[in-house]
Write a structure and sequence with these properties.
Number of helices: 13
Bound molecules: beta-D-ribofuranose, calcium ion
Number of strands: 12
Shape: globular
Strand order of the largest sheet: 3-2-1-4-5-6-12-9
Oligomer: single chain
Length: 317
């Protein structure tokens, strides 16, 4: 399966990269970066460093949009700083590596959609600015892709950035609304399922033996777990938001989905809230958004850990 990862590389995005690289049937064509947990320059550097750390620096990184569609600047949110650190990488050192292609992420996405058509899956685990901009620039091209798997939204559960909204959707609600109403085949992996897939310190017990990659990832996840301990102690672990989107792309049986027409609220009070688009539904618009409502957390986590450890092992040898 040909995959582009569209990421705001923070800690769970970094886990998603390691997991995707370990899935044999996944061919990672590129990473496109977007602002979100950090600014887009830092997101690109974090992605490039992660690829280098894992021995895959042949995979190109394309820099994407710098701020949400309805603003003119980026400012890191307090919650992002707490969960991912000021640099999005648990405040660990991110070694400088040559990090970006000249082409923009948006142009690359359109070019890839035209080249690979229904062979292409995009997994988007940050705010949806790159995807929305690509749709606005060339909807016909983007509609050819096989599927867009999104980590974002809170459909039937409380939000994590406000009582009604999840962070990726709230960080660029206008973009999320454009994407969900575009008619692209979407799988929405929201908090409904990601808060049920948790990583604990025990799950990382094997990572000690895997040299630098294992130790960087242990430090990253430790940072993330400590943030969860502060704000969500009842969960007893950190949520595998972004890796689950990769899992759902490659193993649809990990999640149970329901097809709907969806929209994202853009008014101040409910910014980023995802709801059913009643008008579209009653007008018979095809239900192209498949919302995940249930997850086989155990099967997913087992597979993810297996893949990540394989990647660590290959880079250690
Ligand atoms: C999402 O927001 C970001 O902080 C995480 O990387 C994840 O993509 C969870 O709401
Ligand atoms: Ca993310």
């Amino acid at each position: 399966m040909k995959i582009i990862l569209d990421l705001d590389t923070g800690i769970d995005d970094a886990l998603a990269i390691a997991y995707a690289l370990g899935e044999e049937q996944a061919e990672i064509l590129a990473i496109t970066s977007v602002f979100g947990n950090i600014n887009v320059k830092q997101a690109s550097m974090n992605a490039a460093y992660t690829l280098q750390l894992l021995g895959h620096n042949h995979i190109p990184v394309y820099k994407g949009v710098e701020h949400s569609l309805d603003t003119t600047y980026y400012e890191q949110k307090q919650g992002s700083k707490i969960c991912h650190g000021e640099n999005g990488y648990g405040d660990l050192e991110v070694e400088h590596t040559s990090f970006c292609e000249d082409k923009s992420a948006v142009d690359y996405l359109i070019e890839a959609a035209n080249t690979y058509k229904d062979e292409l899956t995009i997994v988007a685990t940050g705010p949806l600015g790159n995807i929305a901009a690509a749709i606005q620039k060339n909807q016909v091209a983007m509609k050819q892709i096989k599927q867009l798997v999104i980590m974002g939204g809170a459909f039937g559960v409380r939000g994590n950035i406000s009582p009604v909204a999840e962070a990726n959707f709230a960080h660029d609600a206008v973009a999320a609304d454009i994407v969900l109403r575009s008619g692209l085949p979407v799988v929405m992996i929201g908090l409904d399922v990601t808060l049920r897939t948790l990583l604990t310190r025990d799950d990382m017990s094997e990572w000690k033996q895997y040299g630098k990659a294992g130790s960087v990832y242990r430090d990253l996840v430790e940072y993330y777990i400590q943030a969860y301990e502060k704000f969500n102690p009842q969960l007893k672990g950190c949520a595998l938001h972004d890796p689950l989107a990769v899992g759902a792309a490659l193993h649809p049986s990990f999640v149970t989905t329901f097809p709907l027409c969806l929209q994202v609220m853009t008014d101040k009070d409910s910014l980023g809230r995802v709801v059913i688009d009643k008008e579209a539904m009653s007008n018979g618009v095809p239900r192209t958004c498949h919302v995940a409502l249930d997850v086989d957390a155990q099967a997913f986590k087992q597979r993810m850990l297996q893949c990540i450890e394989k990647v660590f092992q290959n880079v250690t040898e």
